[in-house]
Specification:
The protein is an alpha/beta fold. The protein contains eleven helices and seven strands. It has a seven-stranded mixed beta sheet with strand order 2-3-1-4-5-6-7, with helices on both faces. Strand 2 and strand 3 form a beta hairpin.
């Protein structure tokens, strides 16, 4: 009947519009920001400031998801999805990447790597681990066609020819140097050296670089504007600052290896990060963080205090302890397993 065909046509058009909305590389009302990096550097505090949450931030054990809305002209709401990865695992990054594709094209996702400037002896290790997790997360999330589309879109968005040695990451990326309030007290030569290293890795990946401190009103305001730019498409002043006595600011594509003046030998773009690493770790050896590689038990964290659950858990642990003792002393051949309810 004509009524049925009209219904089918309307359904088909709705599905086409939905698919177009999810795959359009240019137009969107929804975007995602995936945040990961150094432990305890203030990622959650930064997100809460951006989304204007009044709650007290709690440590992110695995991953947190939050979102924000902003009404623009014609009463359309722009939506930002914020995925904060607390525990560096490719599977969690993949969850964020695939989750974001439910509402928009992967072209509208930005990766934020937040590093702790106050701990130079862990800075490269943190960066390397975060980048490795992101690379593996990409492979788990997207097929070869999508990865090629991401590569092509990055090339199409380029405003000028690439400098030799630049190897753009598949997705937009920004490196945030956190705890600048502590870092600024460092020796001048150390600040200059670390600044050059961070500018070099950002430039190699065609990423932006910004220093940040939750204790500096200007830096809080600027980072909030940057996240609004990434999350809502708001305008953002792309200022530059390379003075090592001030917080660094370097939008993607606006630096050059010549200006950075790190003086490393010419090599293929994909090998430059290794070269930069050797320069950095030869001056600032990295400490082992093996003690942090295991996920901490949240039951010991006062932020996750649940009296009833804790009491039941303690009771169950005591019961298990008694059963184990009985079994060890031969009073019981095996631990009884209750029938399923």
């Amino acid at each position: 009947s004509s009524e049925e065909s009209m219904r089918e046509t309307a359904l088909r058009l709705a599905i086409e519009e939905e698919n177009r909305r999810k795959t359009d590389p240019n137009e969107t009302h929804e975007r995602s920001i995936i945040i990961l990096g150094s432990k305890g550097v203030g990622k959650t505090t930064m997100v809460y400031r951006f989304l204007e949450k009044d709650e007290r931030p709690k440590p992110t054990i695995a991953m947190d998801y939050s979102f924000g809305r902003k009404t623009v002209k014609s009463l359309v709401k722009n939506i930002v999805h914020v995925w904060e990865v607390g525990y560096l695992a490719s599977s969690l990054v993949s969850v964020a990447m695939t989750g974001s594709t439910l509402t928009h094209s992967p072209h509208h996702t930005v990766l934020l790597i937040m590093l702790d400037l106050s701990r130079p002896e862990e800075l490269w290790s943190s960066f390397e681990e975060a980048l490795s997790v992101i690379r593996n997360g990409l492979k788990m999330s997207y097929d070869t066609n999508t990865i090629q589309e991401l590569r092509d879109k990055r090339a199409a968005d380029r405003k000028k020819e690439l400098e030799r040695g630049v190897d753009p990451f598949l997705m937009k990326m920004c490196i945030i140097g956190g705890r600048y309030d502590e870092f600024k007290e460092f020796d001048l030569s150390k600040k200059e050296f670390i600044g050059k290293i961070l500018r070099a890795i950002a430039h190699n990946l065609d990423a932006s670089l910004y220093y940040y401190s939750s204790k500096d009103k200007f830096l809080v305001r600027r980072l909030k504007d940057l996240l609004s730019h990434y999350g809502f498409g708001s305008s953002f002043m792309e200022d530059k600052c390379t003075d090592c006595e001030k917080p660094l600011m370097m939008p993607a594509g606006m630096d050059s290896f010549g200006r950075i003046d790190l003086q490393f030998p010419q090599t293929r773009p994909s090998a430059i990060l290794d070269t930069i690493k050797q320069i950095y770790v030869s001056r600032i050896p990295q400490v082992s963080r093996s003690d942090e590689s295991t996920l901490e038990d949240p039951s010991n964290d006062p932020n996750f205090n649940e009296p009833i659950i804790d009491r039941l858990r303690m009771q169950r642990e005591e019961e298990i302890s008694v059963l184990l003792n009985d079994m060890m002393e031969g009073r019981m051949s095996k631990i009884p397993v209750p029938d399923p309810i």
